[in-house]
Amino acid sequence: xxxxxxxxxxxxxxxxxxxxxxxxxxxxxxxxxxxxxxxxxxxxxxxxxxxxxxxxxxxxxxxxxxxxxxxxxxxxxxxxxx
Length: 82
Known about the structure:
- With 82 residues, the protein is mostly beta strands.
- The chain is built from 1 helix and 5 strands; from the N terminus they run E-E-E-E-E-H.
- The protein has one domain (2-79).
């Protein structure tokens, strides 16, 4: 399984487990594009599923980077080593 993290805004995200990570996914009428991964994190105190990060498709790369960095404090998977 893949842990798919959907970055909605700087304070909101959602995690789902998917069999595959397509380039585009529709969630609640909004299109999300695959921005990172899926990648396998290094093992820590337990084994992690591969992680894929999605963000609203309308965001530019710079806007995605800002959203990613703003979300790191509350989403442990964004802080793992790959």
